[in-house]
Amino acid sequence: MPARLLAPVAVAAVLAVPGAPGPAQAGPAPAAPVPAAATRATPAAVEVPARPSGGALVGPAVTVAAGAFPAGQRFVSAAVSARHSAGSSRRATMLSVELTCGGQSVQATTNVVTSAVLTPRRVMRDARACTVVARSAVNDATPADGLRVTATLTSAPASWGAVGYSPAGHPRLLRPGARRQVVPVTATVPPGIRTVRVTGDVKVTTCTSVGGSRENGSPPRCAAHRVDAAGTRVRVSLVVRQGSTTGGHCAVRTVASHTVHVAKRVHHAMVSPAGTFTLSAAPGCGRVVRAQVHVRVLGGADLVIHRKGTITSLYR
Question: Which of 43, 209, 269, 302 has the most Cβ atoms closer than 10 angstroms to its Cβ?
Answer without folding.
Answer: 269
